[in-house]
């Protein structure tokens, strides 16, 4: 497969670079999730303390119920925002990984095409049919990869639209319920 030590070294370097890129992407995603979790935890604690103080300051049961109802909507909105942020981080990471896979597959296609051309040039007479069959199989694999990639992108778009619709419906429903309790 490799005819010179330089080609072997270049292939190893490319592999290490790819793995490093994957690791950096995964770590960046984990870092973003960890920061989101810490900020959310801090916000929940602050909101809980603030809500508890407001409830303790209530003069009667009616005021306490009113305060509690007024706290529900912001809490649901924050929970929905948290879920949306987790989804966005995950979707962005998946998109970056998909791009890396596309690049790797493209490089693989080029390598295989180059090897196939070399093999075709040095193949014995009469092997044209076998070379054509391999080229046809590679073309079919490329087409299948493209179709799977397009389908995955469509699923991601549909999922994103559904998440947005569900998020909006949840916030509206909780808002309507909170108004009905007042």
From TrEMBL:
Upper lineage: Bacteria, Pseudomonadati, Pseudomonadota, Betaproteobacteria, Rhodocyclales
Protein name per Swiss-Prot or TrEMBL: Phasin family protein
Phasin domain residues: 6-104
Species whose genome carries this gene: Dechloromonas hankyongensis
Superkingdom, taxonomy of origin: Bacteria
InterPro entries: Phasin (IPR018968), Phasin_subfam-1 (IPR010127)
Pfam family, one: Phasin_2
